[in-house]
Specification:
The structure is a single chain. The chain is α/β, with parallel strands linked by helices. Helices cover 42% and strands 14% of the residues. The longest helix is centred in the C-terminal third of the chain and has 30 residues. Plays an important role in regulating the size of autophagosomes during the formation process. This is DnaJ homolog subfamily C member 16.
């Protein structure tokens, strides 16, 4: 039986074949499109090229295809390809991914080379917006602003001391980044022509740089000035971003000038050693462009701003004949009545202002106040045609030297040439430099030798110079001017005219702030950073600081608690009060003539300018002797109430040089209070005393004043110092009453030296007698 299937509309048999052909063609086209982009071919290097070769090729191509220099319509696309290729090959991980798998996105898993064609399609779908016009997370037009870790530290960070930077932190698939993109582009178009540096950090590609900046989320906007990072926390509006940049700049970059202070401002070149620039404009607020220019040249020029609409500036406008219809810049040097240069333009551009200031950033005769100024004013000779000769006047600071300095300035104004640089130094401020140049006159001061003029040429960065001193010195006379002019003419004809050589030391920095000002500025910046982090709950950046603070508090309070438990465990509150009162009484009993090196204290570590002496009482006896730490020795002086002041004064003087030893402690024992302690101690060591030849000592002698004992509480031994009696008959102890008490310790210093050397005999004791026991025995007696 045959089964037959009938259909009114049989399916077409060509559909599967057509679909297969379509997919095959599409795959071939996509693979071809994906294979067309090869970063090695774009940069023109081989696959085995080194990083140096890749970097060199990138620099050459970037210069060739930069849109600002190349007007070819394809220049921008080619520049983007070059930047993208260098971005891939300069990173070893991304380069390895491309070599092994053909992938350029480090976020894609490894080993997916079989999807290479589809990935090319996906890139076109997303980045090129060729299908559904999806928005992009990063515009390729921003590639010239992309920052890398090495580039940031080598270029951007040092450059932030000359101009502020506005940096955007972004990442792929960041929809919030897309939201702020129009405002960001408008801000860049406004601020970049003014001189603000622009940077973009990709959070996915430059994680190391993002961590250095402290940026851990996207989008983030960062300001960078003087190497200091500041986060932007307001709404992303162009006006807010502009104000953010303006707030980052240091205060008092530009001084407001009126009729009342313009003379003092222009005359400050004597002290500041800088030219002065005045900007005249109609707006009451200093323009941001002028502030940025002032920030870039703040080390060379002082800047002032004059509001033409202010009624307090009429005399100033009239004196310099200012046109009120366009911004005007005047630059003054030593002559405060006549500017040396003027520019006036309605649309003042940053490039014009930079050229105007940079061409006049030195006075006609500046004073050498630091090494940087010396290097810029008198550079090291590089080629024969670029010789720079420095004519240096060595003078003084007194009023008597002003006429000669004024004559030198007049001479420099008349004889200005490209190869000549005129400058002066104060001999008192730069003595090492002047001694190297005037070694034959080093013994003469400027007041005696007058002024000296030296012509020099720097030959190396190590300080080597060729120089010649102008004969006859310099007093500013016409004869001096003629002689100097003649020698300069000879020098230009014959460079070997400079016959002497010397190695100059580095100049003293006369303008460096003192340490306390530097410390205050650093502390101020640190407090601002902490306040900013606390205000905006930036806890991730605050963690190192909080960790340091809590660690310090933990150590501090832990030490206090441990000390309190260790010292106060076996003491009653009443006895501590009695000990404190006793210590105060001891301090009060010492006359004020001796505190320069002697001081009685309860328990403090020794200091450099005094010796701490603690009284052995029934409270301190246990800790200072019986439980003394191993290796520590307590040096105890035995005294009485009548001899206490004199012996303590002498004792401190003799042991002062040993007070820095951490293992030595110093105490005294009042024999009037504990008169049986010494006999008890000596009885316990009678055998040792006899072996040392001291059996003639009366253990019950009432006078042990002046004896010193070095007690080792842990090993139970002591060394004994006996007081010295100076008389004809050393055995006649009756002469001791006629000798001043403090002479008993005359040889204590020598005894202490032997103690430190370990050469003194040691007397062992079975146990230390307690002060309480001796007191009770005394009562029984």
């Amino acid at each position: 039986m045959t089964l037959r299937r009938t259909s009114r509309h049989p399916p077409p048999r060509t559909c599967p074949a057509l679909l297969a052909i379509f997919l095959l063609i599409l795959s071939v086209q996509l693979v071809r499109a994906a294979s067309e982009y090869d970063p090695y071919k774009v940069l023109g290097v081989s696959r085995s090229a080194s990083q140096a070769e890749i970097k060199r090729a990138y620099k050459n191509l970037a210069k060739e295809w930069h849109p600002d220099k190349n007007k070819d319509p394809k220049a921008e696309d080619m520049f983007i390809k070059v930047s993208k290729s260098y971005e891939i090959l300069s990173n070893e991980e991304r380069r390895s991914n491309f070599d092994n798998y053909g992938q350029m996105d480090e976020n894609q898993p490894f080993g997916q080379s079989q999807h290479h064609g589809f990935r090319g399609f996906q890139n076109s779908f997303y980045f090129d917006e060729s299908f559904f016009q999806f928005p992009r997370s990063r515009d390729f037009a921003d590639s010239k602003y992309l920052l890398h870790h090495a580039q940031f530290n080598s270029d951007v960070l040092p450059d932030s001391h000359k101009r502020p930077y506005l940096i955007k932190v972004t990442s792929e698939w960041c929809f919030a980044c897309i939201h702020i993109e129009p405002v960001w582009k408008e801000t860049v178009q406004e601020l970049e022509p003014l001189g603000v540096g622009i940077g973009i950090v990709d959070l996915g590609y430059e994680r190391r740089l993002a961590n250095q900046l402290g940026a851990h989320r996207a989008p983030s906007i960062i300001g960078l000035v003087n190497g200091r990072v500041t986060f932007f926390h307001q709404a992303v509006v162009r006006e807010h971003l502009r104000q953010f940049i303006e707030d980052l700049l240091p205060q008092k970059l530009v001084e407001k000038i009126t009729d009342n202070n313009y003379l003092a401002f222009l005359d400050s070149w004597h002290v500041e050693n800088k030219p002065s620039v005045l900007l005249f404009d109609q707006v009451p607020i200093v323009p941001l462009l002028f502030k940025l220019t002032a920030f870039a040249f703040r080390d060379y020029v002082r800047f002032g701003y004059v509001d033409q609409g202010d009624t307090h500036n009429t005399r100033l406008l009239r004196q310099f004949n200012i046109n009120t219809y366009a911004p005007t810049m005047l630059l003054f040097k030593e002559d405060t009545e006549k500017p040396v240069d003027i520019i006036q333009a309605r649309g003042m551009k940053r490039q014009i202002m930079d050229e105007f200031v940079s061409n006049n950033k030195f006075l006609q005769v500046p004073r050498l106040v630091n090494q940087q100024l010396f290097d810029e004013l008198c550079p090291v000779k590089q080629f024969h045609r670029r010789r720079k000769y420095c004519v240096l006047l060595i003078t003084g600071e007194d009023q008597a030297f002003l006429p000669g300095s004024k004559a030198f300035l007049d001479f420099a104004s008349v004889n200005r040439k490209d190869v000549l640089r005129f400058a002066y130094v104060y001999q008192r401020q730069q003595q090492p430099l002047c001694q190297a140049l005037l070694h034959n006159q080093a013994a003469l001061s400027p007041q005696v030798s007058g002024r000296n003029v030296v012509i020099l040429e720097r030959r190396s960065h190590g300080g080597k110079v060729m120089y010649r001193s102008v004969s006859g010195g310099w007093n500013g006379s016409e004869e001096d001017k003629y002689r100097l002019h003649e020698q300069l003419e000879l020098l230009q004809k014959d460079p070997t005219y400079l016959s002497s050589d010397a190695t100059l030391p580095e100049l003293n920095n006369e303008m460096a702030p003192i340490f306390i000002i530097q410390w205050m500025n650093a502390a101020y910046d640190y407090i601002l950073q902490i306040y900013d982090d606390l205000l905006y709950s930036n806890w991730r950046e605050m963690m190192p600081i909080l960790s340091l603070i809590f660690s310090a508090l933990f150590i501090l309070f832990g030490t206090v608690i441990i000390q309190a438990f260790s010292e106060g465990g076996d003491r009653a509150a009443g006895r501590c009060s009695a000990a404190a009162q006793q210590a105060l009484n001891i301090i009060a009993e010492i006359p004020p003539a001796i505190p320069s090196y002697t001081r009685l204290s309860a328990s403090r570590p020794p200091k450099k300018d005094f010796v701490e002496v603690t009284e052995l009482t029934d409270i301190t006896y246990i800790s200072n002797l019986v439980k003394l730490r191993p290796g520590h020795i307590n040096v105890v002086l035995v005294l009485t109430n009548t001899s206490k002041n004199a012996l303590l004064r002498k004792f401190a003087k003799e042991v002062f040089s040993f007070s820095g030893t951490q293992t030595l402690h110093f105490s005294f024992l009042n024999a009037d209070k504990h008169r049986h302690w010494m006999p008890s101690l000596l009885r316990s060591t009678s055998d040792s005393m006899q072996s040392e030849g001291h059996s003639d000592v009366d253990e019950e002698s009432p006078d042990y004043t002046g004896h010193v004992l070095a007690l080792n509480g842990h090993k139970k031994y002591f060394c004994l110092f006996r007081p010295v009696f100076t008389g004809d008959d050393p055995n006649d102890s009756s002469r001791a009453t006629s000798i001043e008490v403090h002479h008993k310790l005359d040889r204590l210093g020598l005894w202490m030296e032997r103690l430190m050397e370990g050469t003194l005999p040691r007397l062992q004791v079975p146990a230390w007698p307690s002060l309480g026991e001796t007191t009770s025995s005394s009562t029984e007696t």
